Amino acid sequence: MSTRKLYIETYGCQMNVVDSEVVAAILQQHNYQVTEELDEADLVLVNTCSIRDNAEQRVRARIREFGRLKEKSHSFSVGVIGCMAERLKEKLLEEENTVDLVVGPDSYRDLPALLQEVESGQKGINTLLSLEETYGDIRPVRMDRNHVTSFVAIMRGCNNFCSYCVVPGTRGRERSRDPETVVRECKELFEQGYREVTLLGQNVNSYRWKEGEQVLKFEKLLERVAKIHPLLRVRFATSHPKDMSDHLLKVIAKFPNLCQAIHLPLQSGSTSVLGRMKRRYTREQYMERIQAIRKFLPGATISTDIIAGFCGETEEEHQQTLSLMEWAGYDFAYMFKYSERPETFAAEKLNDDVPEEVKSRRLNEIIVLQSRLSLRSKERDLGQTYEVLEGPSKKSDAYLYGRTSQNKVVVFPKGTLKQGDYARVVIKDCTSATLKGNVVS
Ligand code: SAH
Ligand code: SF4
Ligand code: F3S
């Protein structure tokens, strides 16, 4: 049988990036080879995200584009995988006639069998969720371009059921991956020349692996990965504020290769909104966690996620988000307008009653404030020297692009350095998004 060509397009979070690599590994065993050229694809897979309505709309537009292309140029099969596949199931086959295959996040091992059905002219679908699947034994086929930084999934699913969120529905129950396979994968990446791994889960603080009577928690796993090699940087995402422990912060402080950057999603600065969101912490409890980070990791940056205009949000509640942002002085933030998602608690029990233009205005105020905070955070680095791990610059061959341990982007003249090297860079200039500097020997 001749080799078939697989083209994968990935949307959504970093977990989907890893899943696409797992899917490529599964299909490679069945005579498929990854291509970056759509023109030569026999199979196009779209790995999708359902987190907000606009994420889904983008994918639908793309699927229709594939449909037109199929008619115009050459024939290929189209599969939808990931969170939209799980959320919409058969509906996707009914609504988008270009789609031949629908596969949810826990059913990727079934892809080869489903593709046989597609080849015989049927449609293929499997959206069963699992309580155990972690793909722990599969060595992902790396599709990153830089060969310096990589993601490693340590768990799947989510049990938190924040009232606005589709993830518990699309990814199923939380389960942790065997630590031996995590450590092995990170070791192999280091041996292949990678210098940074990001351990991934929706709520890494609740990682737990039971072996007999012993329970291995996230702190211990992180320590084991940190010990692989001092030149391997380790990051992780995401932490849930309700589960972020002092113990974890102390472990990070102990190992220089554990990065000094904490992502701690706030969502809202108002205790009453947090209650409606079912986040299970108050404004004060969240602030106490920020103080703990500052105490144990004084050099760390703190980033966050914020949702503007959640159900019932008053002007006063919105102001509390702004004041908390100012107090925390975030170094970076992802900011979103609330988007109601079908079948979530909020969609069924709360009223999406903040008018669109009010949501937009509040989001805009949040963005303007964060730009100011981001700039202030970068300006603090002027004149300081940081160790930067390099990847290639997207814009020019003469410059390299890298990140500090604090996860800030630095651009600097390349000189004789190459990808994967560590460089010491003194910061000379900045914008709210980037630092600029020169290498010091
Ligand atoms: N598990 C992670 C984040 C998952 S989704 C966590 O709990 O932090 C990433 C971000 O998308 C969330 O932190 C939230 O800010 C945002 N988000 C999730 N659902 C949303 C919705 N319905 N509307 C707008 N933003 C949403
Ligand atoms: Fe969604 Fe909350 Fe789980 Fe994050 S913790 S994935 S926001 S339900
Ligand atoms: Fe999106 Fe699913 Fe990730 S909804 S954010 S791709 S877990």
Strand tally is 21
Low-confidence runs: none
Unique ligands: S-adenosyl-L-homocysteine, iron/sulfur cluster, FE3-S4 cluster
The spatial strand order of the largest sheet comes to 2-1-3-4-5-6
Which CATH architecture of the largest domain is right? Alpha-Beta Horseshoe
**CATH topological fold name of the largest domain:** pyruvate-formate lyase- activating enzyme
CATH class categorisation of the largest domain: Alpha Beta
Mean pLDDT comes to: 96
Q: Strand fraction band?
A: 15-25%
Distance between the termini: 55 Å
The major sheet is characterized as:
6 strands, parallel
Rg measurement, Å: 22 Å
**Number of domains in the coordinates?**
3
Number of helices: 14
The CATH homologous superfamily name of the largest domain equals tm_1862 like domain
Helix content: 25-40%
